[in-house]
Design brief:
three-stranded antiparallel beta sheet; single chain; Immunoglobulin-like; 139 residues; 2 domains; 1 helix; mainly beta
Length: 139
């Protein structure tokens, strides 16, 4: 039987002379499983990747299956004889944008997050008609 328990989650701690019981291991595993499910959900997803196609001046919503904590969006477009790279990285509070119009800005409203994904604002410059955008969303 365990001699002590951890301070935060009351997980069993054994001294060298303690007899180890299977039931204590099972109880600890159940506590850990419950804590992980509360923190990360039941699907074990921690990132989502994909693409979306710009819809012109309309906002674009992307479903990831979880609330992101960080999103990276990028596009490499070959137009007018040169590459036009655009990039956005941001969390719920701030985003850094490098748009196809060669402007750089820091915003707080280019991305909005929901429990199932994120939305790119209509005026963020990341929804040019028929351009393909790639994203990485972290839980």
């Amino acid at each position: 039987m365990a001699n002590g328990q951890t301070a935060n989650y009351a997980l069993n701690q054994w001294a060298a002379s303690d007899q180890v019981l299977r039931t204590e291991f099972n109880a600890d595993n159940a506590k850990i499983d419950e804590a992980l499910a509360k923190k990360f959900g039941l699907d074990n997803m921690y990132l989502a990747t994909g693409t979306y196609v710009g819809a012109g001046s309309a906002a674009v919503s992307v479903t990831t299956g979880f609330r992101p904590s960080l999103v990276i969006i990028f596009c490499t477009y070959l137009g007018a004889g040169s590459y036009d790279y655009i990039f956005m990285i941001g969390d719920q509070s701030a985003q850094m944008l490098e748009t196809q119009f060669s402007s750089r800005e820091v915003r707080t409203d280019a991305l909005t997050f929901s429990d199932t994904g994120f939305t790119i604002a209509a005026d963020a410059g990341f929804q040019a008609q028929d351009w393909s955008y790639h994203y990485i969303a972290f839980r």
